[in-house]
Structure to design on (421 residues):
């Protein structure tokens, strides 16, 4: 005998699962809908978004240029989903819930945040909407198995240590990726997808810190600066951007490094012996020519003092240590070779990278369920009727900056509307 019976059961209480539940219940209030989450609370990964400030979406998606911000085995699919629930509709969804939004202007990256700058507030508001609509939420409930009976789905769940069963007409898998296993995310949905005949591409941690043996990183641990960053793979430059770099005891982190890391992660997944380097221009707003004029104007000054006007003192110390130039040297005493070394390290400091950090440090997952086996009009399996997918479980990964959450909202909405018809 089954313990519960629902019209729709959504497995996974992250962003896409919450959106699927809300959109489904709003579309068809008569349906009995359940949302199952293995953790003690909904949206735990959402709490980490934007360092807890909740980077909900990105204004660059308002240009309807979706393909340049995502990677997938079927980018046309991604475009179709966003055209069903686009940037303006994402904004409208949150504004209808009483959530005012703003664009962060500091880095000009188009990130959209709630004015409260609180992910916890967003989760509370979304949870209240689920409650208002009458969605039944199961917390601390693990979905152990899913069987397709030919007519319905039979879910085996572990709730409070007790094995129970749910009979459900339709299923939406929104179990997420594999990043942050420490908060209970471990990619169990991939096994369910494979069980129903779906291809799952290997999962790769992306938006992740990089590993380096360069002593400069360890000596500079804790220093964060805004710089022009370049990444190269096997001596070919693949990306450049202007953003933060954070030096750590193990290598490199910071928002700029996370943005560069996706291509690097995918490269190491294919060939762990690839040659990867990060080049850093510490003075992106000061040309080499202007820097030379600046030091020539203060020849009687100590080099160290002059550099303190441009960079943090600890970083200046480590840069000079790296090129073996004394803190006490005066600019007029610098040889031609030393002046070249100074320019090279300030404008082209190169860090060799040998790997990436693991899943607990990765923000997102690349890989997942093949998009070619999902109907983009409905987010429904082409193999099993009434089986739907949304969010990070699918083989879609976006740039950091609100793009992955945007995919969660859009795909969750389309899946919710489709399964409630």
């Amino acid at each position: 005998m089954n313990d519960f019976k629902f019209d729709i059961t959504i497995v996974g209480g992250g962003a896409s699962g919450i959106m699927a539940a809300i959109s489904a219940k709003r579309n068809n209030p008569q349906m009995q809908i359940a949302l199952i989450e293995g953790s003690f609370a909904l949206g735990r990964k959402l709490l980490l978004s934007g360092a807890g400030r909740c980077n909900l979406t990105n204004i660059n998606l308002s240009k309807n240029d979706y393909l340049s911000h995502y990677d997938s085995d079927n980018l046309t699919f991604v475009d179709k989903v966003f055209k069903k629930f686009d940037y303006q509709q994402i904004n409208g969804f949150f504004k209808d819930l009483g959530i005012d939004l703003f664009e962060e202007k500091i880095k000009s990256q188009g990130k959209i945040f709630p004015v409260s700058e609180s992910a916890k507030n967003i989760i509370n508001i979304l949870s209240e909407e689920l409650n208002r609509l009458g969605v039944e939420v199961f917390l601390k409930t693990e979905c152990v198995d899913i069987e397709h009976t030919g007519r319905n789905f039979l879910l085996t769940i572990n709730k409070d240590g007790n094995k129970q069963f749910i009979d459900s007409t339709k299923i939406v898998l929104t179990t997420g990726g594999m990043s942050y296993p420490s908060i209970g995310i471990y990619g169990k949905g991939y096994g369910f997808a494979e069980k129903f005949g779906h291809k799952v591409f290997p999962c790769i941690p992306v938006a992740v810190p990089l590993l380096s043996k360069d002593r400069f990183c360890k000596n500079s641990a804790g220093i964060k600066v805004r710089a022009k960053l370049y990444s190269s793979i096997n001596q070919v430059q693949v990306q450049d951007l202007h953003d933060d770099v954070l030096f750590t005891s193990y290598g490199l982190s910071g928002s700029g490094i996370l943005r560069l890391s996706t291509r690097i992660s995918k490269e190491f997944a294919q060939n762990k012996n690839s040659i990867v380097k990060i080049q850093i221009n510490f003075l992106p707003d000061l040309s080499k020519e202007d820097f030379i004029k600046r030091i020539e104007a203060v020849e009687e000054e100590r080099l160290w003092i002059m550099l303190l006007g441009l960079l943090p003192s600890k970083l200046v110390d480590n840069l000079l240590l790296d090129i073996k130039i004394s803190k006490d040297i005066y600019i007029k005493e610098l040889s031609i070779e030393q002046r070249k070394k100074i320019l090279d390290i300030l404008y082209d400091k190169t860090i060799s990278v040998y790997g990436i950090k693991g899943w607990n440090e990765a923000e997102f997952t690349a890989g997942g369920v093949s998009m070619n086996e999902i109907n983009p009009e409905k987010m429904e399996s082409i193999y099993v009727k009434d089986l739907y997918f949304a969010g990070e479980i699918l083989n879609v990964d976006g740039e950091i900056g609100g793009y992955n959450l945007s995919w969660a909202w859009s795909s969750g909405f389309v899946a919710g509307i489709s399964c409630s018809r």
